[in-house]
Amino acid sequence: MTEPQEGPFPAQEQQPPGTTAEMRPRPDHGEDSYVGSGLLTARKALVTGGDSGIGRAVAIAFAREGADVAIGHLPEEQDDADDTLRLVAAAGRKGFSLPIDLTGGVDACRELVQTAVDQLGGLDLLVNNAGFHFTKGDAGTLPGLQPQNVDRVLALNFAAVLWTSQAALPHLDKGSAIINTSSIQAYEPSTQLLDYAATKAAINSITVNLAEQLGPKGIRVNAVAPGPIWTPLQPATRDAAEVEHFGEDSPLGRAGQPAEVAPAFVFLASERTASYVSGTILGVTGGKATF
Ligand code: NAD
Ligand code: MG
User: Fold this and answer.
1) How confident is the model over 59-83, as pLDDT tens digits?
2) Cross-strand bridge partners of residue 225
3) Fewer CB within 10 A of the end CB, N or C, for the chain?
4) Which is nearest to 10 in space by CA: 229, 233, 243?
């Protein structure tokens, strides 16, 4: 891994969904550092939001561990998706791009899963990672909430997790796993992220509930709860002044890199490391408690 950013970030803003190319500094997704050891040999994975940020780091790590990977993303994120797929191919694995807007409800989620199953020739690992928040100005506080943002947050962070998991279920056999991306916001909700924080608490509830429901089928369900991580979501949805100091309030004193989160997903995905781990929310927070 390259040395994580210690000081303030340069002030910067983008429009959602944001691109990796415009970020200063560029995030570290483990391109030069992640070394696989066959933990996911021949597994077939679908990673939503796999074009950039945490999802890209997961796609790279899964591929280097031996998995084929389909990545979901928005149509306007094709450049980022192509970069991720190049890294999957460089790991010697198959990669597929699925440009589908998951705020399209149950039909969009079913299309995503069916296309992934067709491309991969099955499905063993589902990573529900696509997510959105909007906190420019007072947009994340009660007086500032805007219907278009709240609708998008609920449709993507909450409903799409349910519909994508439902669509995947008939394809998941014993030994399969679902991993959801939660957040420190589920435990320490920021007043600037009223709607988003609530969806992450809901993801924790869905995670433990599905672990109970799907355990008898031999399907494990877990979540990763990241703290502040340097990804396009941040400059795309926060004020520039806030981006400058992003992550400084974590006990480790800095934001994390996507490369520092991906190993938690690998651990939860692999039957070799986590065969008896289900219903767990694994914090990768830079020091804040996830209980
Ligand atoms: P990111 O912007 O790189 O990834 C989010 C992805 O969500 C986008 O790349 C996009 O492909 C996808 N997405 C957004 N809207 C979509 C839509 N309508 N349809 C389909 N896909 C859509 O940012 P990230 O930080 O890597 O986010 C990944 C996950 O991590 C999210 O669930 C986010 O809530 C969560 N998270 C991030 C942080 C952080 O500090 N970055 C902290 C905790 C949790
Ligand atoms: Mg993206």
Assistant:
1) 999 999 999 999 999 999 999 999 9
2) 283
3) C
4) 243
